[in-house]
Amino acid sequence: MSFKNSFDIASLGSEALQRLFGETTSYVQNVKIEVIGNRKACRSREEHPATTVGLTVQRPVIQIADWLTKGQRIEAIAHEAAHLLLVYRSGLGVVGRRIPRHGDSEDVFRFFMSMRGDWVYLLGQISNTAHHLILIGFLKQEYGIEDDLHTSLLHQNFCVAANDNPKDKESQYGMGLVAFEYERLIGKINEAINVDHQSEFFWEAYHLAQKHFGGYGFQSVPAPLSYREDILSFLEALGYQREDFIFFP
Ligand SMILES: [Zn+2]
Questions:
Q1: Ligand 1 centroid to 80 CA: how many Å?
Q2: What was the pLDDT predicted at 140?
Q3: Ligand 1 mean position, distance from CA 87 (Å)
Q4: How distant, in Å, are the alpha carbons of 110, 124, 198 from that of 31?
Q5: Which end of the chain is less packed: N or C, by CB atoms within 10 Å?
Q6: Nearest CA to 177 among 135, 217, 210?
Q7: Is residue 14 over pLDDT 80?
Q8: What is the dihedral of CA 193, 157, 201, 132, to 10 degrees?
Q9: Is 245 helix (H, G, I), strand (E, B) or coil?
């Protein structure tokens, strides 16, 4: 195994993080950590200083922004490692869109017609929110790591996104999920955003998220099958067809 290009987490001096990382790599090998300069934000004004790529091909790379402080790097890497544990140990994978069945013109038509929406945002947010309800408590209780970075970014990005007024349905559904997560992890959403300005799509996803993921928490991790069912029935309740989605890895 070569770690030539990988960030050395021992340099952060956190015994808890090293234990967590060791546990993570016992479920998925060759997890790389990279420090990235000038990380491009995936949505205009939101900040995402840490992410994991390569999940779907079983070669996870945790990327963290170079401007994070030492304490924030510990939190960011721990946060991403906890996502990986949920995927590889608990079987709570990420949801994606199935490419259309070859030769099925109806299928292909539906796929391309719906491509205008921000699918990456909505689907990414579903697994993210479901994971976050579990992993914030997990990091605190099992490793004594308070994920202040996540909560401050959640607050900041929620305020920004809620004032963006996206046109597409998928973005507004995604926002509704973020609002639900905000309420579970931080507090009342009306202290962060103007609730009167949110669309019916926003509220629809917000209420459905409560219904489908409201029971999730550190002490109540769903079984892989019920997790998938919760996500598919959430998407179905939003008006999508469950056959259009698949889970990774
Ligand atoms: Zn996360």
A1: 6
A2: 96
A3: 12
A4: 36, 20, 39
A5: N
A6: 210
A7: yes
A8: -110
A9: strand
